[in-house]
Design a protein that fits this description.
By secondary structure, this protein is mainly α. The protein is built from 20 helices and no strands. Helix 2 (16-34) runs antiparallel to helix 5 (110-127), helix 4 (78-100) runs antiparallel to helix 5 and helix 15 (371-385) runs antiparallel to helix 17 (413-433). The radius of gyration is 22 Å and the shape is globular.
Length: 489
Amino acid sequence: MAENIQLYLSEFKYIIPELIIALGIIALIALDLIFYNKKAFLKTAFAVIIVLSSACSLLFLEHSHSPVFYNSLFPNQPSVLFRLLADFTMLAVLIFWKTTETDKRNDTTELPFLWLSVLFAAHFLCISNNWLMVFLSIEMLSISSYILLGIGFKKKNIEAAFKYLVFGALSSGIMVFGISLILADVQNLYFSGFEFSYHAAFENLDLMSIGLLMAFAGIFFKLSLFPFHFWVPDVYQGSSLPFMLMVSSIPKIAAFGFFCSQFLIIWPGDVDFTQFSNLIASIGIISIIWGNLSALRQDSFARLFAYSGIAQAGFMILALVNGYDGILKLEIFLSLYVFMNIIVFISANQIDSKSSNLKISDFAGLGVKNIFFALAFLIAMIALIGLPPTGGFTAKFIILSGLFEWYSSVEMNFRLIIFILAIINVVISLFYYLKIPYFMFFKSSQMPFKAVLPINFILILISTAILIISFVFFSHYKQLIIAIGADII
């Protein structure tokens, strides 16, 4: 008994970042009891320190080479990159939220606690080695998001939070039913450590295949992939810009972290990957087409980038059609996508619009009155399209190259159609991504713009520099990603 306790205590060293966040959440609750509705800035500053501490600990963390805590968690090195991305994104969200929030109803002391809860759940989803842990992580991430969205107490916030909750509950119900089918078929829920047979997965319509398809519902919901994407436009439209930054990035980081650092790396090498790759290719291309065609007719900033997020998630998951070989491609694209989102949503905050729903036409004149933010926004748009001179070009190019290799390995008409449609949709995205820069530089407006805050200027500058540097020195950027997340292959 004493040996078992000592063994479990020794395993805590592998989850130090998660322990830091958990202790930070408890400390924030204590601070709230001491300084009720006071010292809001102090609590936000404390949350920022917690996030920085988590990120620093990840860089010096001893990584586990086998699952821990009864095989429920696997804090391996491939998960480090995704947890670091989640930390950096949350750091940007906290700074952005605190420096831009003007509605005192949103300046509540509960918000730093909820932001950290989202981060904690994202970390655990990246290291979950058990379907039950995956479900619990998704639920914690979702519930914290529902509350964050609805805490503004405005009609649009509550309506958006309710829609988010309804679709989230539906996907969770489907997911937990799928998990029960997996349990009925293989008698365990572990990805590794115990035998988890994928040999019949997606080859026949059996309990395992149906269970996995239903279990993916919760993952696809967080990725905003078709057909679990209907909540996205209303949630974006009913939320503030800091929340948009969070919901557009962290759930995707966590869900792809689960796929890349847990699920795919234990897929047996002798198992045919064809059916699974065809499935995610179908979902990915439908998401791209739906997102792009819907974005074309939007005049609302929030709804345009909601549909953009659906399309980009579809493009990212196409990287995984090659199995292990696609993981590095996805990591590169996802890491750059975080910086694109930071530029987009922080730049949008410079518009001093009286309307609660920011319009694309509201950006008119920004290129004249604030050339720095306008150029940064233009670079982000070019990167989202996948054009040089940004890292978005090389990231999309290697994904498309992998897609062509996927077709070349098995020359099926289905795969060729997927490849052609992916290229066509890159062209389609030109027509809505360049809509805002067009208004910035070629339209005039008397609308006032907000003063530039130094911290926001720094965030934009860093993000823009990374998008350009990753294009010029792409091989070095690739090596950096490999060094942080380990060469999974």
